[in-house]
C-alpha cells in the first residue's frame, strides 16, 4: 500500500511540474507586456489592436490575483499570456524571426542553385520568386492595420520556408544521384588485362603486372 502511495505522489508531482506555475507565468507576463510595447513601436498601425488585446489580457490577469489556489491561479494567468501570444499579435511579435528564417533559407537556395540546370534550378527559381513576393507582402501588412493581412502573410512565409528547403533537398538529391551514377559508370568502364605469365587480372591502366611485374600486352 505504501508503495502505491509513493507512486501516486510522484505521478501528481510530475503532472503539476508539467503544468503552468505562478512564477513561470509571472515571468512570461512581464516578457509579453514588453513585447506588446515593442510591437506598438514597430507596428504603429496596430497600436489600437494591441491596446485592446492587452486590456482583455489584463482583465484575466487581475482575475487571477483573486484566486487563492496556486494551480488554478496559474491556469488563469496562463490564459492571459496565451491571449497575448495568439493570432494576429503573436504573429506580429514573431514576424521578424520568421522573416529572418525565410532570408536564411533564400541564402541556402541561392548557394545551392549555382551552376545547376534543368528542373531543379527551375523549381529553385520559382521558390525564390515566391519567397521574395511573400517578404514584400509581409512588410506591406505591417502598415495595413488589418489582422487578416498579417495572419495571411505569416502563414505564407511558413509555406515558402518549406518550399525553399524542398528546393535545396531536390538539388542535393540530384547531386548525390549524379555522383552515384558517375561512380557506377566508372566501375563499369574498368577493363582488365590478363598477365600471360602468371594469369593475374590487372586493370588496363597498368603497364606491368601487379603480381609478378611482367610487362602487360594490351
Which labels suit this protein?
2 domains; mainly alpha; elongated; two-stranded antiparallel ribbon; 218 residues
Briefly characterize the structure.
The protein has seven helices and two strands; from the N terminus they run αααααααββ. The chain has a two-stranded antiparallel sheet.
Structure in words:
This protein has 218 residues and is mostly helical. 76% of the residues lie in helices and 3% in strands. The protein has seven helices and two strands, in the order αααααααββ. It has helices spanning 2-18, 22-42, 47-65, 70-85, 87-112, 119-141, 147-189; strands spanning 192-194, 201-203. It has a two-stranded antiparallel ribbon with strand order 1-2. The radius of gyration is 32 Å and the shape is elongated. The N and C termini lie far apart (88 Å). Residues 1-16 have low confidence and may be disordered.
Helical content class: over 70%
Strand pairing plus helix content: what structural class? Answer: mainly alpha
Radius of gyration, CA atoms, in whole angstroms: 32 Å
- Weakly predicted, low-confidence segments: 1-16
Overall structural domain count: 2
How are the secondary structure elements laid out?
Elements: H1 2-18, H2 22-42, H3 47-65, H4 70-85, H5 87-112, H6 119-141, H7 147-189, E1 192-194, E2 201-203
Antiparallel strand pairs: 1-2
Helix pairs in contact: 2-3, 2-4, 3-4, 5-6, 5-7, 6-7
Amino acid at each position: 500500500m505504501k508503495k502505491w502511495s509513493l507512486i501516486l505522489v510522484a505521478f501528481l508531482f510530475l503532472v503539476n511540474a508539467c503544468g503552468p506555475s505562478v512564477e513561470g507565468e509571472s515571468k512570461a507576463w512581464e516578457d509579453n507586456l514588453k513585447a506588446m510595447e515593442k510591437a506598438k513601436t514597430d507596428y504603429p498601425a496596430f497600436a489600437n489592436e494591441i491596446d485592446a488585446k492587452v486590456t482583455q489580457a489584463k482583465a484575466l490577469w487581475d482575475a487571477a490575483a483573486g484566486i487563492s489556489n496556486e494551480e488554478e491561479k496559474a491556469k488563469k494567468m496562463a490564459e492571459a499570456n496565451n491571449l497575448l501570444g495568439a493570432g494576429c499579435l503573436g504573429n506580429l511579435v514573431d514576424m521578424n524571426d520568421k522573416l529572418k528564417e525565410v532570408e536564411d533559407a533564400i541564402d541556402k537556395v541561392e548557394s545551392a542553385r549555382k551552376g545547376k540546370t534543368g528542373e531543379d534550378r527551375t523549381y529553385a527559381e520559382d521558390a525564390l520568386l515566391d519567397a521574395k513576393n511573400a517578404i514584400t507582402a509581409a512588410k506591406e501588412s505591417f502598415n495595413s492595420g488589418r489582422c487578416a493581412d498579417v495572419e495571411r502573410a505569416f502563414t505564407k512565409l511558413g509555406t515558402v520556408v518549406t518550399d525553399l528547403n524542398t528546393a535545396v533537398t531536390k538539388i542535393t538529391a540530384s547531386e548525390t544521384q549524379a555522383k552515384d551514377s558517375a561512380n557506377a559508370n566508372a566501375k563499369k568502364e574498368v577493363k582488365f588485362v590478363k598477365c600471360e605469365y602468371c594469369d593475374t587480372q590487372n586493370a588496363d591502366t597498368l603497364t606491368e603486372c601487379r603480381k609478378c611485374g611482367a610487362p602487360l600486352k594490351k
